UniProtKB/TrEMBL annotation:
Highest classification ranks of the organism: Eukaryota, Fungi, Fungi incertae sedis, Cryptomycota, Cryptomycota incertae sedis
GO terms for MF: ATP binding; ATP hydrolysis activity
Segments forming a coiled coil: 57-84
Source species of the chain: Rozella allomycis (strain CSF55)
Protein name: AAA+ ATPase domain-containing protein
KW Cytoplasm (keyword) present: no
Record keyword Coiled coil present: yes
Transmembrane segments: none
Domain AAA+ ATPase: 137-270
SMART domains documented for this protein: AAA
Pfam families, alphabetized: AAA
Record keywords, A-Z: Coiled coil
Length: 271
Protein backbone atom coordinates (compact mmCIF):
# COMPACT_ATOMS: atom_id res chain seq x y z
CA UNK A 1 0.00 0.00 0.00
CA UNK A 2 2.83 2.40 0.89
CA UNK A 3 4.66 1.53 -2.33
CA UNK A 4 1.49 2.28 -4.30
CA UNK A 5 1.23 5.70 -2.64
CA UNK A 6 4.87 6.44 -3.46
CA UNK A 7 4.24 5.52 -7.09
CA UNK A 8 1.24 7.85 -7.18
CA UNK A 9 3.32 10.72 -5.75
CA UNK A 10 6.12 10.06 -8.25
CA UNK A 11 3.62 10.22 -11.11
CA UNK A 12 2.27 13.54 -9.80
CA UNK A 13 5.79 14.96 -9.53
CA UNK A 14 6.57 13.85 -13.07
CA UNK A 15 3.39 15.54 -14.26
CA UNK A 16 4.33 18.78 -12.53
CA UNK A 17 7.79 18.67 -14.09
CA UNK A 18 6.18 18.31 -17.51
CA UNK A 19 4.03 21.41 -16.93
CA UNK A 20 7.15 23.55 -16.62
CA UNK A 21 7.79 22.82 -20.30
CA UNK A 22 4.27 23.70 -21.46
CA UNK A 23 2.93 27.26 -21.90
CA UNK A 24 0.16 28.05 -19.45
CA UNK A 25 -2.45 28.58 -22.13
CA UNK A 26 -1.88 24.98 -23.27
CA UNK A 27 -2.55 23.52 -19.84
CA UNK A 28 -5.67 21.45 -19.42
CA UNK A 29 -8.59 22.97 -17.56
CA UNK A 30 -8.05 20.34 -14.87
CA UNK A 31 -4.47 21.47 -14.29
CA UNK A 32 -5.45 25.12 -14.24
CA UNK A 33 -8.03 24.44 -11.55
CA UNK A 34 -5.73 22.12 -9.62
CA UNK A 35 -2.95 24.67 -9.31
CA UNK A 36 -5.05 27.60 -8.19
CA UNK A 37 -6.04 29.39 -11.36
CA UNK A 38 -9.66 28.18 -11.36
CA UNK A 39 -9.40 27.98 -15.12
CA UNK A 40 -9.08 31.73 -15.49
CA UNK A 41 -6.35 32.94 -17.75
CA UNK A 42 -5.94 36.47 -16.43
CA UNK A 43 -2.39 37.74 -16.59
CA UNK A 44 -1.95 37.98 -12.83
CA UNK A 45 -2.68 34.30 -12.28
CA UNK A 46 -0.80 33.22 -15.37
CA UNK A 47 2.32 34.93 -14.09
CA UNK A 48 2.04 32.99 -10.87
CA UNK A 49 1.63 29.51 -12.34
CA UNK A 50 5.28 28.67 -11.68
CA UNK A 51 4.77 29.59 -8.03
CA UNK A 52 1.75 27.30 -7.80
CA UNK A 53 3.74 24.48 -9.34
CA UNK A 54 6.61 25.04 -6.96
CA UNK A 55 4.38 24.92 -3.89
CA UNK A 56 2.64 21.76 -5.06
CA UNK A 57 5.95 20.16 -5.92
CA UNK A 58 7.36 20.87 -2.46
CA UNK A 59 4.30 19.34 -0.81
CA UNK A 60 4.55 16.23 -2.96
CA UNK A 61 8.26 15.85 -2.32
CA UNK A 62 7.67 16.05 1.43
CA UNK A 63 4.92 13.46 1.12
CA UNK A 64 7.19 11.18 -0.91
CA UNK A 65 9.96 11.51 1.68
CA UNK A 66 7.59 10.60 4.51
CA UNK A 67 6.21 7.63 2.60
CA UNK A 68 9.68 6.32 1.82
CA UNK A 69 10.61 6.61 5.50
CA UNK A 70 7.47 4.64 6.40
CA UNK A 71 8.39 2.02 3.80
CA UNK A 72 11.94 1.68 5.17
CA UNK A 73 10.58 1.21 8.67
CA UNK A 74 8.13 -1.46 7.47
CA UNK A 75 10.93 -3.31 5.69
CA UNK A 76 13.21 -3.08 8.74
CA UNK A 77 10.42 -4.35 10.96
CA UNK A 78 9.82 -7.28 8.63
CA UNK A 79 13.55 -8.05 8.54
CA UNK A 80 13.81 -7.98 12.33
CA UNK A 81 10.84 -10.32 12.59
CA UNK A 82 12.36 -12.77 10.10
CA UNK A 83 15.69 -12.70 11.92
CA UNK A 84 14.02 -13.33 15.27
CA UNK A 85 12.27 -16.34 13.77
CA UNK A 86 15.62 -17.74 12.60
CA UNK A 87 15.34 -16.67 9.09
CA UNK A 88 17.51 -17.72 6.57
CA UNK A 89 17.08 -17.43 2.95
CA UNK A 90 14.47 -18.17 1.07
CA UNK A 91 13.64 -21.27 -0.80
CA UNK A 92 10.56 -23.16 0.17
CA UNK A 93 10.96 -26.89 0.66
CA UNK A 94 7.87 -29.01 1.02
CA UNK A 95 8.24 -30.96 4.25
CA UNK A 96 5.23 -33.22 3.85
CA UNK A 97 3.71 -34.81 6.92
CA UNK A 98 5.57 -32.83 9.55
CA UNK A 99 3.43 -32.07 12.58
CA UNK A 100 2.95 -28.47 13.65
CA UNK A 101 5.05 -27.34 16.59
CA UNK A 102 3.45 -25.99 19.70
CA UNK A 103 3.93 -22.22 19.94
CA UNK A 104 6.09 -22.52 23.06
CA UNK A 105 8.66 -24.71 21.36
CA UNK A 106 11.70 -22.83 20.16
CA UNK A 107 14.36 -23.75 17.64
CA UNK A 108 17.78 -23.12 19.18
CA UNK A 109 20.43 -21.27 17.26
CA UNK A 110 23.26 -23.56 16.25
CA UNK A 111 26.27 -21.93 17.83
CA UNK A 112 28.83 -24.54 16.92
CA UNK A 113 30.84 -24.87 13.72
CA UNK A 114 28.94 -24.19 10.53
CA UNK A 115 27.52 -21.34 8.53
CA UNK A 116 26.09 -18.08 9.79
CA UNK A 117 22.66 -17.85 8.22
CA UNK A 118 22.65 -14.08 8.62
CA UNK A 119 25.55 -13.78 6.17
CA UNK A 120 25.84 -14.84 2.51
CA UNK A 121 26.16 -18.61 2.26
CA UNK A 122 25.64 -21.54 -0.07
CA UNK A 123 22.09 -22.83 0.01
CA UNK A 124 23.09 -26.44 -0.79
CA UNK A 125 19.57 -26.89 -2.17
CA UNK A 126 20.13 -30.31 -3.75
CA UNK A 127 21.81 -31.72 -0.66
CA UNK A 128 19.14 -30.28 1.61
CA UNK A 129 16.39 -31.77 -0.53
CA UNK A 130 18.04 -35.19 -0.28
CA UNK A 131 18.18 -34.90 3.50
CA UNK A 132 14.52 -33.89 3.71
CA UNK A 133 13.53 -36.91 1.62
CA UNK A 134 15.52 -39.27 3.83
CA UNK A 135 14.11 -37.66 6.95
CA UNK A 136 10.58 -38.33 5.72
CA UNK A 137 11.25 -42.00 5.09
CA UNK A 138 13.20 -43.04 8.19
CA UNK A 139 13.42 -42.31 11.93
CA UNK A 140 17.23 -42.25 11.64
CA UNK A 141 19.40 -40.53 9.01
CA UNK A 142 23.20 -40.68 8.98
CA UNK A 143 25.51 -37.96 7.70
CA UNK A 144 28.95 -39.55 7.36
CA UNK A 145 31.78 -37.58 5.78
CA UNK A 146 35.21 -36.13 6.61
CA UNK A 147 35.68 -33.21 8.99
CA UNK A 148 34.99 -29.84 7.40
CA UNK A 149 32.79 -31.20 4.62
CA UNK A 150 29.68 -29.30 5.78
CA UNK A 151 27.70 -31.61 8.07
CA UNK A 152 27.05 -29.01 10.77
CA UNK A 153 26.22 -26.42 8.13
CA UNK A 154 23.68 -28.82 6.66
CA UNK A 155 22.11 -29.32 10.10
CA UNK A 156 21.86 -25.55 10.39
CA UNK A 157 20.19 -25.24 6.99
CA UNK A 158 17.82 -28.08 7.81
CA UNK A 159 16.77 -26.44 11.08
CA UNK A 160 16.16 -23.14 9.29
CA UNK A 161 13.84 -24.85 6.80
CA UNK A 162 12.07 -26.98 9.37
CA UNK A 163 11.66 -24.48 12.17
CA UNK A 164 7.99 -23.69 11.54
CA UNK A 165 6.93 -27.32 11.35
CA UNK A 166 9.01 -29.33 13.76
CA UNK A 167 11.01 -28.83 16.93
CA UNK A 168 14.73 -29.07 16.16
CA UNK A 169 17.09 -30.02 18.99
CA UNK A 170 20.81 -29.65 18.33
CA UNK A 171 23.15 -31.72 20.52
CA UNK A 172 26.95 -31.73 20.36
CA UNK A 173 28.41 -35.09 21.36
CA UNK A 174 31.92 -33.78 22.06
CA UNK A 175 31.91 -33.74 25.87
CA UNK A 176 29.27 -36.08 27.29
CA UNK A 177 28.05 -39.64 26.92
CA UNK A 178 25.09 -40.42 24.72
CA UNK A 179 23.11 -41.38 27.81
CA UNK A 180 23.78 -38.05 29.53
CA UNK A 181 22.99 -36.10 26.37
CA UNK A 182 19.60 -37.71 25.73
CA UNK A 183 18.32 -37.95 29.30
CA UNK A 184 17.30 -34.24 29.55
CA UNK A 185 15.10 -34.85 26.51
CA UNK A 186 13.13 -37.66 28.12
CA UNK A 187 15.16 -40.53 26.66
CA UNK A 188 16.58 -42.67 29.49
CA UNK A 189 18.94 -45.26 28.02
CA UNK A 190 19.85 -46.78 31.38
CA UNK A 191 16.27 -47.54 32.40
CA UNK A 192 15.03 -47.92 28.82
CA UNK A 193 12.16 -45.47 29.18
CA UNK A 194 10.88 -42.55 27.12
CA UNK A 195 8.80 -39.60 28.32
CA UNK A 196 7.54 -36.56 26.45
CA UNK A 197 7.59 -37.98 22.94
CA UNK A 198 6.43 -35.33 20.48
CA UNK A 199 7.08 -34.22 16.90
CA UNK A 200 10.77 -33.34 16.98
CA UNK A 201 14.09 -34.07 15.35
CA UNK A 202 17.19 -34.58 17.50
CA UNK A 203 20.36 -33.67 15.62
CA UNK A 204 23.41 -35.43 17.10
CA UNK A 205 26.56 -33.69 15.87
CA UNK A 206 30.02 -35.30 16.17
CA UNK A 207 28.25 -38.54 17.05
CA UNK A 208 31.41 -40.55 16.27
CA UNK A 209 32.67 -39.48 19.71
CA UNK A 210 30.07 -41.81 21.23
CA UNK A 211 30.61 -44.82 18.95
CA UNK A 212 32.32 -46.65 21.82
CA UNK A 213 28.98 -46.76 23.66
CA UNK A 214 27.69 -49.68 21.63
CA UNK A 215 25.19 -50.80 24.26
CA UNK A 216 23.67 -47.33 24.43
CA UNK A 217 23.28 -47.16 20.66
CA UNK A 218 21.71 -50.62 20.58
CA UNK A 219 19.27 -49.59 23.31
CA UNK A 220 18.32 -46.40 21.49
CA UNK A 221 17.85 -47.94 18.07
CA UNK A 222 16.46 -51.39 18.83
CA UNK A 223 14.73 -51.02 22.18
CA UNK A 224 13.47 -47.46 22.44
CA UNK A 225 12.74 -46.14 18.95
CA UNK A 226 9.31 -47.80 18.89
CA UNK A 227 8.45 -45.99 22.15
CA UNK A 228 8.92 -42.58 20.53
CA UNK A 229 7.33 -42.76 17.07
CA UNK A 230 7.18 -38.96 16.80
CA UNK A 231 10.90 -38.44 17.48
CA UNK A 232 13.43 -38.63 14.66
CA UNK A 233 17.23 -38.44 14.64
CA UNK A 234 19.79 -36.99 12.27
CA UNK A 235 23.22 -38.34 13.18
CA UNK A 236 26.26 -36.41 11.93
CA UNK A 237 29.57 -38.22 12.27
CA UNK A 238 33.08 -37.68 10.96
CA UNK A 239 34.33 -40.49 8.79
CA UNK A 240 38.09 -40.83 9.29
CA UNK A 241 40.89 -43.35 9.03
CA UNK A 242 42.10 -42.70 12.56
CA UNK A 243 42.01 -45.40 15.19
CA UNK A 244 38.49 -44.62 16.33
CA UNK A 245 35.60 -46.93 17.08
CA UNK A 246 33.79 -48.51 14.17
CA UNK A 247 30.39 -47.25 13.13
CA UNK A 248 27.73 -49.16 15.14
CA UNK A 249 26.37 -52.11 13.19
CA UNK A 250 22.82 -50.83 13.67
CA UNK A 251 23.61 -47.87 11.41
CA UNK A 252 23.91 -50.10 8.35
CA UNK A 253 20.19 -49.89 7.61
CA UNK A 254 19.98 -46.09 7.87
CA UNK A 255 19.66 -43.90 4.77
CA UNK A 256 22.82 -41.84 4.60
CA UNK A 257 24.56 -38.95 2.96
CA UNK A 258 28.24 -39.70 2.41
CA UNK A 259 31.36 -37.94 1.25
CA UNK A 260 30.34 -37.80 -2.41
CA UNK A 261 27.01 -36.19 -1.52
CA UNK A 262 28.74 -33.31 0.25
CA UNK A 263 30.97 -32.44 -2.71
CA UNK A 264 30.08 -29.09 -4.26
CA UNK A 265 28.44 -29.07 -7.66
CA UNK A 266 30.12 -27.09 -10.44
CA UNK A 267 27.60 -24.29 -9.97
CA UNK A 268 28.09 -24.17 -6.19
CA UNK A 269 31.87 -24.18 -6.57
CA UNK A 270 31.73 -20.94 -8.55
CA UNK A 271 29.40 -19.08 -6.21
Amino acid sequence: ETEAEIKEVEESLAHIESLYEIPFDLWSTKDKKRFGTDGKEDQQKISKHAEYLKEEKILLMKKESNLREDLRELKNKKKRKEESEYSGKNESLSLVGWARREPRQQVPSLKFDGINLQKPHLQRSGLLEKLCGMYESSPFVLLSSPAGSGKTSLLNLFAAKARMDIECIYISCLKKTLSDLLKPHGIDLENETVTGDRPRVIMLDDAHKTYGEKNNWTTLIKNLSHLMPQTKFIIAATHSLEGCYDTPAEFSSFPRLGRSDFLLSDEEATQ
